[in-house]
Amino acid sequence: MPTHHEPADIDVAKETWAEFLRQCHPEEFRKGGNRVCVPMIVGDEILGVIILGDRVGGAPFSWQDFDLLKCIGDQVAAGLLNTRLSQKLVQAKELEAFQTMSAFFVHDMKNTANTLNLMLQNLPVHFDNPEFRADALRGVAKTVGRINHLIGRLGSIRSELQIKPVEADLNAVIAKALEGWEEIAGLNLKKEFTALPKFLFDPEQMLKVATNLIFNAREAVAQDGQVQIHTAQKNGYIILTVTDTGCGMSPEFLNRQLFRAFQTTKKNGLGIGMFQSKMIVEAHKGRLEVESESGKGTTFRVVLPLKTK
Questions:
Q1: How many beta carbons lie within 10 A of that of residue 224, not counting itself?
Q2: For the chain, is the Cβ count within 10 Å smaller at the N or the C terminus?
Q3: Do 177 and 77 share a domain, yes or no?
Q4: Between the CA of residue 294 and those of 83, 187, 242, 249, 288, what are the distances in Å?
Q5: Three-class SS of residue 42?
Q6: Domain check: are 178 and 266 in the same one?
Q7: For the segment 78-136, what is each residue's pLDDT rounded down to a tens digit?
Q8: Distance (Å, whole) CA 6 – CA 308
């Protein structure tokens, strides 16, 4: 192939690339004068060649023709490169979308596994209690149902987060997320639920947010650390506050990475929980606020507009 960017007469050129092209294309323009090869090159990469000639009159190409052919070759090469890059961009976006979708499901499955693990931790202590065993069986049944629900969702992926608001009690959702936590040894858990009116929100989605915030707080605190859960109503908003006395976050991570997908400070974390939580809260027209200081703990506030039927 040519080592330069200029069009060349392949029936005159003596280089190896010209002989190769003559052998590959012995029949093109046999009666139309000499053939010109126009390389399509971007940088040092040859994307292809154009071979042409005057099949009618056999007129030779002028230097003006060669200049025009070079411009055409450059334009076609740029178009081919853009097409290639566009295809790669589409593939990259498809892969990114798949990774994001997978991370959401893996994160939900991780929370489900954590619920089972919580039950197993309590099982040796309370196994002789018939009420606990019955409650454990109900919990296993709910967890299996949850797993089946997640599997079912794989068959109906949608491009946007779907919120299905119903009139519900946020305190009940938080209580469900806290089931089993009070029995964990070494966890100082404090709850302060203010009586709240029922309002429109998606209980299933908000359960994910509450579960994620509680698990994050638990993982952040030391063995004797404290986690506080508080709900309140103020100025037309319902507020859920989760505070821990754990390790906190650096200002850089807080400002640049906390709510980005696949960003985490945890060794085995996925970096999807806070990204998902923020999406859910904002889909409810609310906001997720955070205050944190390294070594002193973190406070998350879920602020939701009080909307009723």
A1: 9
A2: C
A3: no
A4: 48, 20, 17, 5, 20
A5: strand
A6: yes
A7: 888 888 777 777 667 666 666 666 666 676 777 777 777 777 777 777 778 888 778 77
A8: 72
